[in-house]
Amino acid sequence: MSREAPACRKALNDATRRWPSRDRRSDGIMGDARHQATKSDHNLGNAVDVTHDPSVGCDGALIAALAQRDPRVTYVIFNRRIWSRARTTEGWRPYHGTNPHNHHCHISIKASSRDDLRDWAWVSATASPAPHDEGHTTPAPQTPATPPGKVTHVEPYPGIMLRRGARGLLVRRVQERLVVLRWDIRVDGDFGSATEASVRGVQRRHDLEVDGVIGRNTWRALFQ
Question: Which alpha helices (H) appear in the chain, and where do they start and end?
Fold first, then answer.
């Protein structure tokens, strides 16, 4: 009988360690009746779903980006996109399954990594959750920005478009990068008018469509 992989259980436990109050309603490892009727890594216990809860910082896009860098991972699905290690040169591709995976991030692992209990990257994520309610008055602590001109790595496009009104860790990361590029904005994880204006400025500098929306090309312009 199949059983859940300890590495998958640790993925959920590490998310809870990082964000104790996170929503867990879409968490899962073993496949239900619907999964059993199809070919799924959940049936073998080699896949884990981490609930997307950006209100506390457990953003599915962040989980997906960190999972891509983990050698245990074979593929990731989130927000109608799929990334697979076997096709890394293609990056994120459209996902056409019946479940859009917008309530959780799906992570499949290698069978040989089932018992690999190394910490998952999100357990030590340094960015802090952004304020998410109007009554919150204490600003979230800011992560020190990388000095201008010194980018330690090119961050992969997370596969999700960011626009005015978005909130969470990805927005915060973009704001940190905008500050590095000398745009005068507040790093608070809230994609407001000042962030949008700065994004438009970056788009103009790189001869991109000036719409204030961060898609693949704008992300590359920010983090190249």
Answer: 6-18, 33-36, 60-68, 169-180, 193-205, 216-223
